[in-house]
């Protein structure tokens, strides 16, 4: 929680260090694919993105997505958040086609699981529109 506060205050180096410490501890004690470890990957990926360390952020997001798909399944809401987060960091790197593919996947899954007018479905549609506009 402190790492998230530091991130929101723009204290990225401190936040990154705490996020790394948390991730390492959870991986050591719980294992790399434990459901409690996965948010630590996401939090570290987010602070790396905030710092403009897009490639490192992408690596963390890919690890998180792989774990979510394995543990929670491809259609789980947390997995779809992971898909969207990865698509966002890909977009930040100019990898628009891959980002588009991921945003389309999140949108289609949310349409199946939720109703088309659900706020998260609409968010996925908006994310897709943004990357299409950039192309």
Account of the protein in words:
It holds the Pfam family TPR_12. It comes from Tuber aestivum (summer truffle). There is one protein chain. With 135 residues, this protein is mainly α. The chain has 2 domains: 1-57, no CATH class; 73-134, Methane Monooxygenase Hydroxylase, Chain G, domain 1 (Up-down Bundle), CATH 1.20.58. The chain is 79% helix and 0% strand. It is built from 7 helices and no strands. The chain has helices at 2-8, 12-29, 38-50, 54-71, 77-92, 96-113, 119-134. Helix 4 (54-71) packs antiparallel against helix 5 (77-92) and helix 6 (96-113) runs antiparallel to helix 7. The longest helix has 18 residues, at 12-29. The chain is globular. The N and C termini lie far apart (36 Å). The mean pLDDT is 95.
What are its keywords?
single chain, 135 residues, mainly alpha, Methane Monooxygenase Hydroxylase, Chain G, domain 1, 2 domains, cytoplasm, kinesin binding, Kinesin_light
Q: What percent of residues adopt helix (DSSP H or I)?
A: over 70%
Note the overall shape. Answer: globular
CATH class of the largest domain: Mainly Alpha
Summed up, the helix count is: 7
Distance between the termini: 36 Å
User: Could you tell me the radius of gyration in angstroms?
Assistant: 15 Å
Count all strands and give the number.
Answer: 0
Count structural domains: 2
Q: Determine the CATH topology of the largest domain.
A: Methane Monooxygenase Hydroxylase, Chain G, domain 1
Which CATH-level-2 architecture of the largest domain?
A: Up-down Bundle
Content-based structural category: mainly alpha
- Strand and helix order: HHHHHHH
> Would you identify the regions where 5 or more consecutive residues have pLDDT less than 50?
none
Mean pLDDT, to the nearest integer, reads 95
